């Protein structure tokens, strides 16, 4: 027996025998042991009545008053998941529903369509950091009521965004490889280089009619990007992704669209009437004065690689956070997940954060942005990809 084997066998015995036994005797140890892969790369739940083996959630912290109700929606995929697809769990982690008939799925949500609750998600082929697929709407019996596709030629639905509106329309994102001028970006890129344009569409769910479309290339110069992609732009299958749209939200009052661009570090308000960029928060073209630059919650405009920018109803915020008064025309509350990380070629912060911002645009000459609240993970998580912030209604028991 080799020396390496003599060293490895005791470690395996501890990892696979001793630690699971300790967790069985002391269940509070199961959560940290799961992070150590004691139960495998992806611990699974098995059933006698079903072949599905969805991942077992790892509940890190529990509060009986705040966490006992509601459901958790999740979409699992990746090489460690044998049955990828959308899933619903109880708040305590028990499986309610799972489907693998759609293949790789993402962005599972509870939304409204035809005045009733529906489940929506994207399913298709993941292509690096975007996707090519369709969107699905399921009723309360988990039956497919509508499959939604992007309008136009050879375009495909992207995995980042699909939201329904009270008018029974849908807003979705599209990644489209096309030609643009990158001659000012060096690395021998020319006037006819390959780029990945970011688009979003709003379509009528009943008729499939295209109601609105916006293209980032129409308003944002690729030179404004912060993303380093030295090998992209030279071939159709490796377009330079200068913008990278990852969320769109529609304001319930004005009908304007809030667009998050990961690679330009910006949130932009797009006119719902003519597609004009009304203002830009963050990035190279920032229009706001930062009132929170030295505050404890951090800067309101120096977010980077962010995701999931949403309008927030001021009524959902705790009273102590509504000291400014109710939302009025020209004043916006916005939430986002500030990743602060993109990869080894970029400067990272110590951890990611969730943000709630207040944006005052009533005076176009002196628009201001400030942090209302900042959230950080218990573990100081630094997420290089994806992430979200969800503002929940106050619990009646708290």
Automatic annotation (TrEMBL):
InterPro entries tied to this protein: Arylsulfate_ST (IPR053143), ASST-like (IPR039535), Quinoprotein_ADH-like_sf (IPR011047)
Keyword Protease: no
Entry superkingdom: Eukaryota
Family matches, as Pfam families: Arylsulfotran_2
Keywords from the UniProt entry: Signal
Secretion signal span: 1-23
Protein known as: ASST-domain-containing protein
Taxonomic placement: Eukaryota, Fungi, Dikarya, Ascomycota, Pezizomycotina
């Amino acid at each position: 027996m080799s020396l390496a084997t003599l060293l490895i066998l005791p470690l395996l015995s501890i990892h696979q025998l001793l630690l699971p036994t300790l967790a069985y005797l002391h269940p509070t140890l199961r959560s940290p042991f799961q992070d150590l892969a004691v139960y495998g790369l992806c611990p699974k739940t098995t059933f006698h009545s079903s072949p599905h083996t969805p991942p077992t959630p790892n509940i890190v912290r529990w509060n009986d008053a705040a966490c006992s109700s509601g459901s958790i929606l999740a979409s699992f995929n990746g090489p460690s998941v044998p049955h990828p697809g959308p899933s619903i769990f109880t708040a305590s982690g028990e499986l309610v529903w799972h489907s693998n008939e759609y293949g790789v799925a993402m962005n599972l949500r509870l939304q409204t369509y035809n005045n009733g609750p529906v489940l929506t998600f994207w399913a298709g082929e993941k292509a690096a950091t975007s996707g090519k697929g369709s969107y699905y709407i399921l009723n309360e019996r988990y039956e497919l009521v509508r499959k939604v596709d992007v309008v136009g030629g050879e375009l495909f639905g992207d995995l980042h965004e699909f939201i329904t509106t009270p008018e029974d329309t849908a807003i979705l994102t599209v990644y489209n490889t096309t030609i643009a001028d990158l001659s000012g970006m060096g690395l021998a890129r020319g006037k006819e280089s390959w780029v990945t344009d970011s688009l979003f569409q709003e379509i009528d769910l009943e008729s499939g009619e295209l109601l609105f479309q916006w293209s980032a290339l129409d308003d944002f110069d690729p030179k404004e990007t912060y993303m380093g992609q030295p090998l992209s732009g030279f071939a159709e299958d490796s377009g330079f992704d200068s913008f990278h749209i990852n969320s769109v939200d529609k304001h319930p009052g004005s009908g304007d669209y809030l667009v998050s661009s990961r690679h330009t570090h910006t949130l932009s308000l797009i006119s719902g009437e003519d597609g004009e960029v009304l203002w830009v928060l963050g990035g190279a073209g920032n229009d706001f004065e930062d009132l929170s630059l030295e505050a404890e919650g951090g800067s309101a405009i120096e977010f980077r690689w962010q995701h999931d920018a949403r309008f927030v109803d001021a009524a959902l915020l705790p009273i102590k956070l509504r000291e400014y008064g109710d939302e009025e025309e020209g004043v916006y509350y916005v939430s986002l997940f500030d990743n602060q990380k993109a990869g080894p070629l970029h400067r990272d912060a110590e951890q990611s954060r969730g943000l709630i911002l207040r944006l005052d645009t009533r005076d176009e000459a002196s628009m201001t942005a400030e942090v209302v609240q900042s959230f950080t993970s218990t573990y100081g998580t630094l997420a290089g990809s994806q992430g979200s912030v969800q503002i929940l209604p106050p619990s009646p028991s708290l």
